[in-house]
Design brief:
By secondary structure, this protein is mostly helical. It has 13 helices and no strands.
Amino acid sequence: MIEADTLTKTKKLLDHAIVSAWHAVKSDRRPPALTPTRWVWRLAGFYHLCHSTPRIMDEARSHFAAANRQSLAQWAEQKAIEEAGHDVLALRDIRSMGYDAEAVVEAFYPPAAKALMDYFAQSAQNSDPIDCVGYSYTAERLGTCIGEAYIQKVEALLPEGINATRCLRVHSAISTTEVQHVKETVAMIAGLTDQERDRVAKACYQAALLRFSPPQEAYISDEELENVLRPLELTQYK
C-alpha cells in the first residue's frame, strides 16, 4: 500500500509539470471558434489518438516485461485493454454527423494529434519506454478537466438530435472510469523510484507542451474542411 502523503506528493509533481508546460507555451494564437464542421475535424483527431493506443501500449509492455519491470508491464497491459474500442466511439460520432467515418479519418489527421501520437510512438520504441506513462497520465488528467458544461456547449452547437459526443464523454470528468484511471496511474507512479518519477514528470511536461502548443502552420479553415467533407456525406444526409 502507498501512503497517502506519497500519493499526494506524486500527483502534485505530475500536475505541476503539466501546469508548467501551460505557462511555458505563452502563445496568443487561439484555435478558430468551434462549429459543427470543426467538430468533425476534432473527432478525426480523437480517432487517431485512440486508434493506435492499444498497439503502442502493447509495445511498451513488451519492453517493460523484457526488463523485468513488472508493475510497469502490468500497467501498460491494462492500458491497452482499457483503451481498446475507443476509436470506434469516434467513428460512431462522425457517422452521426452525417459522414462516411472511415473516409473522414483517412482524409484528416490533425497536426496536433499527429504530433502527440508521434511522441507516444517514439516513447514506446525506446528501450526504456517510461515516457509513455507521462504521456498517458497527461492525456487522462487533462481529460478530467472537461466537465459537463463544456460537453453541453459542444452539443448545443450540433444539429438537434445528433449524438456526437460519445468519445468526448468517455474521456472527460463525467466518466467515473477516466477519473479512476488517473488515480490508478498516480498510485502506480508513486511506487516507482525517485528517478523514474522524475522521468515521468518530464514526460508529462513534454506531452503537455505538445498539447498546449498551437500548430506551426495556419489553422485549417471551415471552408477547406467543408470542401473535403462535402463528397464524404452519407447518402441519407444529402
